[in-house]
Amino acid sequence: MSKNNSKIKNMNVYRMDYSTIQNHLEKYKEHSIITGGISKEKIREFEEELDVTLPESYK
Fold first, then answer.
1. Which of 2, 23, 26, 40 is deepest in the core (most CB within 10 A)?
2. Could you give the CA distance from residue 19 to residue 9 in angstroms, rounded to a whole number?
3. Per residue in 9-59, pLDDT tens?
4. Exposure b/e, 34-52, CB count within 10 A at least 16 = b
5. Do residues 4 and 15 lie in contact, with contact meaning Cβ atoms separated by under 8 Å?
């Protein structure tokens, strides 16, 4: 198997649909910490610190 095919295969292992994630969160909710998000200023600080620009969908 080529390196590219191996990477794709590994990525597929982690692909989940919404209901799978929702069920997992419900099952383990006592162990979960979910936040309401962070400020735009904090995102800007992370981007500067990591020298990256996050996609809008991450913000």
1. 23
2. 22
3. 555 555 667 788 888 888 988 887 777 788 899 999 989 999 999 888 777
4. eeeeeeeeeeeeeeeeeee
5. no
Length in residues, the chain:
59
Residue type, 51: D
| Helix, strand, coil percent values for the chain (each to nearest 5) | 65, 0, 35
Q: For the chain, which residues make up each domain, given as ranges?
A: 3-53
Look up residue 21 and give its amino acid.
I
Say if pTM beats, i.e. exceeds, 0.70. Answer: no
Pairwise CA distance, residues 22 & 32, whole Å? 12
